Amino acid sequence: MITIRDLAQQDLDAVAELEALNFADPWKRNDFEEIIGNPDKGCVVAEDEGRIVGLAVYHNILGDVDITNVQVHAGHRRQGIGRSIVEKTVNKAREAGGRNYTLEVRASNTAAIRLYEALGFKTEGIRKGFYDHPKDDALIMWLRNG
User: Fold this and answer.
1) CA atoms of 67 and 65, how far apart (whole Å)
2) Average pLDDT per block of 10 residues along the chain, 146 residues long
3) pTM for the predicted model, two decimal places
4) Are residues 83 and 115 in contact, defined by beta-carbon separation less than 8 angstroms?
5) Are 98 and 63 spatial neighbours (Cβ–Cβ below 8 Å)?
6) Which of 26, 57, 70, 134 has the CA that lies 20 to 30 A from 44?
């Protein structure tokens, strides 16, 4: 059974490990530790039988929320976990005063793009050559609620 919840101190090693599996330039443990207790930031994790299998980070900047580090462990993809994580992230950020939500996604990541579009995000820009390992453009997507 998958549980979606806030990041806790005991999750720090696991989220840093998941980050290292999924990203060429991963955040470190202390990057996640700085989120805990910060009223403008948060991290939502997906837990399956005591194991962290997904996460997303948000940073609320005067009502505009930047969502980053959205990821699901390869062995747990295509089960709706990514959707649940993003929905919970938007809801948590809304509770903290968020009104508009933005994220960046690799232009080649069609599965993630479809997910974000299904949640109401729309592409509003492109950052050419934004990603490395491999080089790729980033689509800038927004969910605007006014």
Assistant:
1) 6
2) 94 95 90 93 95 96 94 92 95 92 95 95 95 90 86
3) 0.91
4) yes
5) yes
6) 134
